[in-house]
Amino acid sequence: QLQASGGGLVQAGDSLRLSCAASGRTFSRFVMGWARQTPGKEREIVAATSRSVGSTYYSDSVKGRFTISRDNAKNTVVLQMNNLKPEDTAVYYCAGDPNAIMSTMWKANAYDYWGQGTQVTVSS
Q1: Which residues neighbour 71 within 8 Å (Cβ) at sequence distance 6 or greater?
Q2: What mean pLDDT, rounded, does the chain reach?
Q3: What pLDDT was estimated at residue 115?
């Protein structure tokens, strides 16, 4: 089970930190990602990390502003979002999958496990 938290309403240029807590003892086996979705659009992965944070993925729209990290000892994955823009407004979801592979961790359909969404709203 994945539990996301940390969303909110901020102004452009502000920062937010999203956290995702996972239950279970196999968290370290999961490739983890953060996705976002706006009405009428498909869910897109904006950041992902391999099992040991050896590799990460960022979508072009967030590269240089967002950072994904994980703590396997605490079963958590964090998305630090800096310099937020109005276009970052979306519902954000954490996702995980033990069978995801590096080459496809940027695809939303690579993940079978999803947390509930947390709303991020960035005002201009």
Answers
A1: 77, 78
A2: 94
A3: 94
Structure token pair of residue 93: 């979801």
Separation CA 38–CA 53 (nearest Å) = 27
Give the separation between CA 57 and CA 49, rounded to whole angstroms.
6
3-state secondary structure the chain: CEEEECCEEEECCCCEEEEEEECCCCHHHCEEEEEEECCCCCCEEEEEECCCCCCEEECCCCCCCEEEEEECCCCEEEEEECCCCHHHCEEEEEEEECCCCHHHCCCHHHCCEECCCEEEEEEC
